[in-house]
Structure formats: C-alpha cells, structure tokens
Write a structure and sequence with these properties.
The complex is a heterodimer of chains A (269) and B (778). By secondary structure, chain A is an alpha+beta fold. In chain A, 33% of the residues lie in helices and 24% in strands. Chain B has 3 domains: 156 residues, 2-Layer Sandwich (Aldehyde Oxidoreductase, domain 4), CATH 3.30.365; 187 residues, Aldehyde Oxidoreductase, domain 3, CATH 3.90.1170; 328 residues, 2-Layer Sandwich (Aldehyde Oxidoreductase, domain 4), CATH 3.30.365.10. Classes of the chains: A alpha+beta (269), B alpha+beta (778).
C-alpha cells in the first residue's frame, strides 16, 4: 500500500497555504488525513502536492462567543469529545464527536477536514446542519444550509480553507446512529435539535449527502417527543442502497434513529 | 510432572515472544540486497490477453525485472493440480484446468496474475507495475452458481460445457427413497453457504533466494506445511528434485487453511530471484489478499429430512452444488467430498442420498478453510432438524434427543461413510442443556419481550472427522550435554504446539517444558511432515512423540543397565530417572545422554548417540464432537442481533492443555459467528468484480460482538491413537454456524420468519421481518 509520489509542503500560515495551493498542479489540503491518506494508499487519489495545514497556528481551539460555541477547523474529534465547554453547551455534539470512527481516527481526524470532505456517511455534517451552524473560511462565512452541496462536494471554492465552525447553542439536541457493521460509518445517523426558533433534523449516512428531513421537523415542532415521529413516513426513493442494506432498510433506520435522537435530546444526553 | 504434563493448564510458552514483539515473521527477516516484487493482476473477471507492453515498466526508475505470462510459458513451468480426482456427469474423469503461475492468454478472475515487476524498493515495484500495459479483450463473466448453470451461460473453460466440472452421487438412493415413502413428514430447506475469506492477520508473504553455485532455491514464507509447499513448487511448477528447494516457515500470523497450499506468488519470488540474482520479497497487501488469496465455502444445498410421526429421522437427501472459482486448487474439490459423512450427525438416521456437483465461475478459486466442508454439512443437518422441529411443533432439543445415538450403541456404524469409535452424545447433550439452562429459556424470552426485544435459542450437535492425513514423523534428540530438542514436521501458527508438544514429552520423560527446545518449519531441519491442517497435529505428531519417547525410554533402559551393571529387567523408569530395584542406584536421562555420546564407554552393540525418530501412522480418523447452544436477542426496529449466551459441551478426547483447547474452541466459535452474522465475500452479478475488497465492506466480527463463551470438555478418549486425543482445532467452528442461525430463526419464528440466510446481517433480519409482516397482512 504505497501512494504515488507527491510533494509535501507545510506552510507557516493560511496565506502561505493558499499561495501553495495556487502554485501546485493538483493540490490537496491535508489536515488529519483520515480519509485522504488511505485513499492515496489505494491509489484512488494521486494529488501532486499535499499542503499540510494541521500545524498552522490558531486553527485548533474551542471557545464560547456568548451563546455560540466556536471550534477551530483543525480541532481533533477527541478534543471536542472531551472538552468541558462542548459537553456543557452542546452535549450531543460532544457525544457525536466521541463516537466518530475509532480512537485512532478521533485522535487524528479534524472537524474542518471532515466537513470539507463531506463523506455521505460522516457524522459531523449532521451536527453542523442539524444545529444550523456557520462555517467560517479564509474568504467568507457559509451557512450550513448552503454548505453541503452533494456527495463529497461542498460550497468551498478551490483553495478556500475552513478556519472555524460556529455552533449556536440549542435548547436541546440529540444524535443517534446505526453503524455499518463492517466500516463503522453511519448507515443512518440523525441529529435532532430544538434551537429556540425551530426544530431541525439532519440525516447522514442514508443518502448521497447529509439532508434535512422536513416532515420530521414539522412533527417534532408540533410535539418534541419520540412518539411524534411514529407516523412520519420516510421516503426511501432517494436513499442509498448497497450490499449493506436496501433503501427501505435505511428509511427504517432514519425513522428509528430520529426517535432515539429525540429521546436522547429529552434526556439531556 | 503434574504441573506441566498432559492435562495441565500450562500458560503458552510462545506467548512471551509474541506479546513482547519478539515474534519473527517472514517480513521481519533481514536480507541484504533485497529486491521487491509486485504482481500485475487482471482487472477483468474474464478476458483474452491480446498482448503485453512492458517497455515503460522496464525503463522505470529502480525496476530490475519485468516478467509476463509469456515468459513463464517460455520457461515451460508446470501448474498446480488438485489432490482429488472425480468424474463429471458423463462418468468421465473431471477436467483439470491448467493452473499456471502467470497467465499469458486468458484471465479468469479479477486478480488473476499476469506479470510481475521486481525493483529495488517496494514503492518502485508498485510504480513499475502501473506501467505494465496489458491489452485485454473483455469477455462475459459469471460469479455465482445459478448463473454458471444457466442455459447459455458464458463458459469459464471451453472444455467444460455448462461449467460443471464434477457430478457424483453418493449414498443409497433406493433405500433412501424407500425411507422417504414411509415418512409422516418431510422437511425441506435450501441453504446458501456463503463465501468467506480466511482473513489471517498476517498477510501471505514470501522471500525467494537462489544459489547459482548449488543451483538451489530457498523460500522463506508464511505457510502451514513447508514440505507440501516444497513438493508443489519443486515437483509441479519447476519440475526439479525436491532437494533443490528449501522451505522455511518462521512465525506465521494465522492461516486457517489459506496458507496450507501454494499460491502462485511463492513460486514467482523464487523464479524472480533466479532471474535477477537477488533475494526477492513479496508481501501481500490486504486489498490484494481480498482479490487473490484463495477463498472458502460458497455452496448451495437443497436438503430434505424424512421423519416418522414421532419425529424419528428416516432419511436425508442432499443436493449440493459447489462454486469452485476459476481454477481447481489443491484442496478445492475436497471441500465437497471429505466431510459428507457429517450429514449423519450424532443421530441414528441411516439413509443418505447425496448428490454433489461442482462448477467453475469467474471468481477467486476456492480452497479449504477451518472445517473444510464440515461446517457446511453440519449446517445442512442441524438447520433442517430445526426446520422439521418447527413444522412438527416439537422442541428442537427434544427432537434431537429422540434421535441421539445411545452411548451404549458406540461403536456405531452410521451406514454412510463413518463408524463412530467413541463418544458420549447423551452426556454431551444433557450437559449442554444444563449449562444453557434450556428449560429456563421461555422466562428469559418473556423478559426480552417486555423490553421490545426478540429472543431466540438454538442448538447444534456437531460431529466431524479429524486427522484424516494419518502419518507424521517426530524426533526426540538429546545433545551431549543431556538437553533435549524435539523436532516435528507439523507447523504451529496459533495452535500452541510449542507448549502442548512439550507437555506430551514432559509427561513421558519427566523433563520440564521450558528446558526443551523445539524445531519445526524448515524442510532442511525437520523430517518429512505434512504440516498443520485438518485438526491433525496432536493426533499424529503428538503420537509420534509418544512413540519416540517410548523408544528413548527403552534405549535408556539398555544403557542404564550397562552403566549400573544390572540386568535391563532390573531397571525401572520414572519421572526422568532410571533406577535399579536391587541396589537403588540411579541415573537420569541427561546422564544417559552424556554417556551415550561417549564411544569409548558405550558397548558396540548399543551404538552411540541418544535420539529417536518415529514415523507414526494412526489407525484411523477420530470424531471430535460438541453440543452447542446459542442464545440471541434481536432489536426488531434495526435488525441488530446480540449474542447473549453461548455454551459448548465438547468432546475432543483427552485434553492436553485445557487453556489451549478452550482457546481453540473460542476462536472457532468466533469464526463461526463471523460467518453466521456478518462475513461474506460478494461479487457483482454482472461483471464478477469483487464488491467486498476491504474491511470497510467485508465485515469481520469485533470483540464486542462476541459473548462470554462457556465450555466444558467431556474427554471421551479416542481409541486409535496412544494419546486418546481428538482434533480440537476445527470442531467448535463446525457447530457454531448452525447454532447461531438456529437461534436467530428461533427468535424470528413467532413473527412468521421460517429461515434466514447467512450472514444474518441487521439489514437482512429486518427485511425478513418486514417480508413476514407483509405476508401476514396479505
């Protein structure tokens, strides 16, 4: 398992990173590398240049801005999972981070890397969309609803780097997922949040890209209880079907996980 | 010697090495001037090769050598052959496909090797392999049995119409038909036994060396049977005398049958070493292993069980179709034949009508894996019993009890293949029922139900045949200091032989295990041996050690008599010491050994030296057996299963080391649970491309998926070997498949689910529940 040869650069700051990106043929930013490196080793990706931003100063932090929790793009999953600020402000987010992959992944992988990659079965996109978070980059601010544009695709422009993610604190939130028995990725993961303004339900793993489930949001807005979801039908038409499960099975999991996420939100877990 | 002799729970002597990182695997062997090989493999399941262009690869930095199928053909190499020959539907000898180390004209599965690139670094070899251009003309392909047998299916081999390589009828069709005519009930089932990967932790690996002065090869490789590997490569491929090849197999990180026989890469590193005059190493990657490691199981079975009104078994009919993959490996066919006798189980049924058919497909070839046919056969009988029990509304344990071979009837001729020479199935059954608290299950089910969960219990009473390859040689050798070395032709790669073989010798000779040295895994250093497989090592190599120890004692008595100046009949041997009854003088084994090496003192008629080598041949196979009970709880909302209890009451004969026997049983059950719940190799139905090419899609069981497993040993000694042992390496896996599936089907039965195919994944369980719900509603 050897990747094709590539150039490795470690810029001192974000401006240097963006400059390196402009100059290279086929560059990729490297943060935790938890997806990119295995993909390169399998030679499914062969970038000419890796620009390592993991050690750029000022990208790994967690801070409160009034009711908003701001997490630096290069903050590791394990750090988010363990951080008292996160556990106090949005316990569901800490729990989600603590359930990503395995300990090795949680100690290397970063929130910015996960969002920029936008794997259809990644956990973080559901929290970002479910909480109505804002993604701040080297160039602008992007609302979660506009960020995730499709399978492995986002609103980021070439060279643009996520710097931090701002999560408005919800009244309550919960996350539940069923892992793919082989890979451990979410077969279906549902993030449910009552924000104060509205109820948001974001689904990952089941479709080509994280999405909001409008009917579930309406049902939970009427009554924020697991039972409120009992009669909500989840359409299987647009869901994934593969050797691990049919679209109908994923629709079932979305319904069950949504109810469990609501229950988790109510129990404050 | 109670603290470390036969029966002692001696902690494994090899553990210190392995858990402190001092294990030495093939990839760890330092070698100067080492070159690295990369294999170029077919990206198509079926294609004609129109040509090779290797010029860019040859010119790549670091590349030393590029060889293709055309070069292999020019060398005049032979090919691998099947150990077993059978007949086709016309009664003619079955077609034996040429199985070369590199293909030049046709490729028949994704991963079929067509060329190699050798370079100064592994990275350069990998880059060079990307530059080998092969011009393919893609052809239609087939991956599963039904597609292979369909009318007008593409042919894997032009010589084999309908892709059917073998068709054989076994048993007694007439008597079975008569028995079925008397039946009050016939239970029918169709089972797909899934294809799985051996998935050993250490991938396959080999380092080839060639000495041009001696014109001799050395292969360092992870293999289970060094002499067998030597025979295959020297005799079949290179067509050279076997003394021109030495095979050394150091520590091996798991094999399960997947390293029992030679794959093309091991001959390729040797050929490459000769061609580029350097040692050449190949290490299989996990991705490559999924494509090119021979795979296991994969067959379809139609099973019918005839019963009288009281549930007595009258006869069983089986139609079994095996998927062989694209070629016949050394042991691929055996998986369909060697273990059909297990269909009789531990029951008094005597009528069997068995049909075997074996077909080629454009998939990775099939080879033996732990159990090698016994898990399949045991699944057939143990699953159909549960189906019959449900249909006749009899408790499945009770139905088995009614048909058990009584202990008083042993030895018992099943009327089909086997005569069971020992066993106590009644005791095994009763013990398992108690261990699992079978009677208390309804209450546990009710408790689960109250929490919205489905609970099920399943039983399987497995019996298998072990140690079918009946000869093995072992040596006990004393050096001039009086210390002992034992030498065996088997290979230990998880079986704990370094501990248990020493325990056998310790019991016989009174020498502490830690004071012995043990040699195995080198064709230059060990007598001819058939390696480790088919649960044979303790039965045959252990018995060979017993015989060698007996000879050591006999010779020791002769020498002691001379040393102590008494008649041989006056010498007694106990715990390593020879004593005269008359004078109470004594000499220990070390003293004898030192004396025996002194030609000035030894009488001429006794000769010098103190070593004995014995080639042991057992009188027959043995029959390990065990009653498994598995209990599961299922979440109907997600289909997720947890195994909440697992009990095994097993008889592997005399237990040499209870820790080791338990370890083998737990490992076997874990592997069975893997196949029952999650593992499956899947090919695309159209292109025959592998869809489960990594652990992201091929699901291995995790530690958290496994329950605490409770095991009790019955220890009914086998009569046909001096240790009284039965094979312990495979028997637990054999029963685990049906026990788990029976438990799941029991949990789902109240919802109207009759059967579920392995692996019983959450998705499949939920679909089965939905289907049953829809059927009920309709």
């Amino acid at each position: 398992m050897y990747p094709a040869s590539f150039t490795y650069v470690r810029p001192a700051d974000l401006a240097a990173a963006e400059a390196a990106f402009r100059e290279a043929d086929d560059p990729r930013y490297l943060a935790g590398g938890m997806t990119l490196i295995p993909t390169m080793k399998q030679r499914l990706a062969a970038p000419s240049t890796l620009i390592d931003i993991a050690r750029v100063p000022g990208l790994s932090f967690i801070r409160r801005e009034k009711d908003t929790l701001v997490i630096g793009a290069c903050t590791r999953h394990a750090t988010v999972a363990a951080a008292p600020e996160v556990r106090a402000a949005i316990p569901a987010l800490a729990a989600l981070a603590g359930g990503i992959g395995d300990p090795a992944v949680r100690n290397r992988g970063t929130i910015g890397g996960s969002l920029a990659n936008n794997d259809p079965a990644a956990d973080y996109p559901s929290a970002v969309l479910g909480l109505g978070a804002v993604i701040r980059t080297t160039r602008r601010t992007i609302a979660a609803d506009a960020f995730f544009t499709g399978m492995f695709s986002t609103a980021l422009e070439p060279g643009e780097i996520i710097t931090e993610v701002a999560f408005p604190g919800p009244r309550r939130a919960g996350y539940a997922k069923v892992r793919n028995p082989a890979s451990g990725y979410a077969m279906a993961g549902v993030f449910v949040a009552e924000t104060g303004k509205d109820v948001r339900v974001a689904v990952t793993g089941a479709g080509a890209c994280v999405f909001r489930a409008a009917e579930m949001e309406q049902a939970l807005a009427r009554s924020f209880t697991p039972d409120a979801l009992a009669d909500v039908r989840v359409a299987a038409a647009d869901l994934n079907a593969d050797i691990h499960g049919s679209a109908a099975y994923r629709a079932q999991l979305v319904r069950v996980m949504a109810a469990r996420a609501a229950a988790a939100a109510l129990s404050g877990a | 010697m109670d603290e470390f002799g036969i029966g002692a729970p001696l902690p494994r002597l090899e553990d210190v090495r392995f858990i402190t990182g001092r294990g030495r695997y093939t990839d760890d062997i330092p070698m100067s001037g080492l070159a690295f090989m990369e294999v170029v493999r077919s990206p198509y399941a079926s294609a004609r090769i129109k040509g090779f262009d290797i010029s860019a690869a040859q010119a790549a930095p670091g590349v030393l050598l590029v060889l293709t199928g055309e070069d292999a053909r020019a060398e005049g190499f032979g090919g691998y052959t099947s150990k077993m020959r059978k007949t086709n539907r016309q009664g003619e000898p079955n077609f034996e496909p040429p199985f070369r180390i590199l293909e030049a004209e046709r490729v028949r599965f994704v991963g079929d090797p067509v060329a190699i690139v050798v370079a100064t670094s592994a990275e350069a070899a990998r880059d060079g392999a990307d530059l080998v251009l092969v011009d393919y003309e893609e052809l239609p392909a087939i991956s599963d049995i039904k597609a292979a047998l369909a009318k007008g299916a593409p042919l894997v081999w032009d010589e084999v119409p309908n892709n059917e390589c073998v068709f054989v009828e076994l048993g007694d069709r007439k008597a079975t038909a008569a028995a079925f005519a008397q039946a009050a009930h016939v239970a029918k089932g169709e089972f797909a036994i899934s294809r799985v990967a051996h998935a050993s932790i250490e991938p396959r690996v080999g380092i080839g060396l060639y000495d041009p002065v001696e014109d001799r090869y050395t292969l360092h490789a992870a293999v289970q049977a060094p002499h067998t590997t030597r025979n295959e490569i020297a005799t079949r491929i290179f067509r050279i005398p076997e003394n021109k090849l030495r095979v050394i197999s150091p520590d091996v990180g798991g094999a399960f049958g997947g390293k029992g026989y030679s794959h093309p890469e091991l001959a390729l590193v040797l050929w490459a070493a000769r061609k580029c005059d350097r040692p050449v190493k190949w290490v299989c990657t996990r991705s490559e292993a999924f494509l090119a490691d021979f795979q296991a199981r994969d067959n379809l079975a139609q099973v019918e069980l005839a019963l009288d009104a009281n549930g007595k078994f009258l006869g069983v009919k089986v139609k079994n179709v095996l998927n062989l993959g694209a070629y016949l490996t050394n042991a691929g066919l055996q998986c369909g034949f060697h273990h059909v006798g297990s269909i009789c189980g531990v029951y008094t049924n005597r009528n069997v009508d068995w049909e075997v058919s074996a077909v080629f497909t454009n998939t990775t070839p099939i080879i033996a894996m732990r159990g090698a046919g016994r898990p399949e056969t045991t699944f057939m009988i143990e699953r159909i019993i549960d189906i019959a029990a449900a249909e006749m509304s009899i408790d499945p344990a009770e139905l088995r009890r009614r048909n058990l071979i009584p202990t008083a009837a042993i030895p018992y001729d099943t009327g089909f293949v086997h005569t069971y020479d020992s066993g106590d199935f009644e005791k095994g059954f009763d013990t398992a029922m108690r261990m699992a608290d079978w009677a208390g299950f309804p209450e546990r089910r009710a408790r689960s139900q109250a929490r919205g969960k489905l609970r099920g219990i399943g039983m399987a009473y497995a019996i298998e045949s072990a140690a079918g390859v009946r000869d093995e040689t072992a040596e006990i050798r004393f050096d001039t200091s009086g210390a002992v070395t034992i030498v065996v032709g088997t290979h230990s790669h998880g079986q704990s032989h370094e501990t248990t073989f020493r325990q056998v010798v310790a019991s016989m000779l009174g020498i502490a295990p830690k004071d012995m040295r043990m040699i195995y895994g080198d064709t230059d250093l060990t007598p001819f041996g058939r390696g480790t497989g088919a649960s044979r090592s303790m039965t045959v190599a252990g018995s060979a050690l017993v015989c060698a120890a007996e000879r050591i004692i006999a010779r020791g008595k002769q020498i002691a008599a001379h040393m102590l100046e008494v008649e041989e009949s006056d010498i007694a041997f106990d715990a390593g010491v020879f004593t005269t009854r008359a004078t109470n003088r004594s000499v220990d084994l070390a003293g004898i050994a030192r004396f025996a090496h002194d030609f000035r003192q030894m009488p001429a008629h006794l000769g010098v030296g103190f070593a004995e080598r014995v080639a042991f041949v057992s009188d027959g196979i043995n029959f390990p057996n065990g009653c498994h009970v598995c209990e599961v709880e299922i979440d109907p909302a997600t289909g997720e299963t947890s195994i909440v209890g697992y009990w095994l009451s097993e008889d592997v004969g005399v237990v040499i080391n209870p820790l080791v026997v338990k370890g083998q049983a737990v490992g076997g059950i874990a592997q069975g649970i893997g196949q029952a719940l999650c593992e499956k190799i899947v090919f695309d139905g159209e292109s025959a491309q592998l869809l489960t090419g990594s652990f992201m899609d091929y699901c291995m069981p995790r530690a958290k998926d496994l329950p605490a497993i409770e095991i009790k040993s019955q220890e009914v000694p086998a009569p046909n070997n001096p240790l009284g042992v039965k094979g312990a390496g495979e028997s637990a896996l054999v029963g685990a498949l049906p026990a788990v599936i029976n438990a799941i089907c029991d949990a789902l039965r109240p919802l109207g689910v009759k059967h579920i195919e392995m692996p019983a994944t959450p998705a499949r369980i939920w679909e089965a529940i939905e289907q049953a719900r829809r059927a009920k509603a309709a």
